[in-house]
Specification:
Layout lengths: L2 E7 L6 H10 L7 E6 L4 H11 L3 E8 L2 E7 L2
Parallel strand pairs: 1-2
Antiparallel strand pairs: 2-4, 3-4
Length: 75
């Protein structure tokens, strides 16, 4: 997967992972992928809903050593 930017939002509580994701998405071109790393368990539902509401595509998410990783393709 060709990632354009990686956002480190580990240690941040809601709503900061979403706030940082919105800001980082402005630095990514349409069709490019933003990879987000967070430790906020609420991000599972938050980022999924945010991507859908913005028309972006959540390509994949996984959890590794208590870090949630998301790959979102910008619409």
């Amino acid at each position: 997967m060709n990632v354009a930017k990686v956002l480190d939002a580990k240690g941040l509580a809601c709503p900061m992972p979403i706030v940082k994701t919105k800001k980082a998405m402005k630095d990514v071109e349409n069709g490019e992928i933003l990879e987000i790393h967070t430790t906020d368990q609420g991000a599972k539902s938050d980022l999924t809903a945010w991507a859908k509401s913005g028309g972006h595509e959540l390509l994949k998410h996984e959890e590794e050593n208590a870090v949630l990783k998301f790959w979102i393709k910008k619409a």
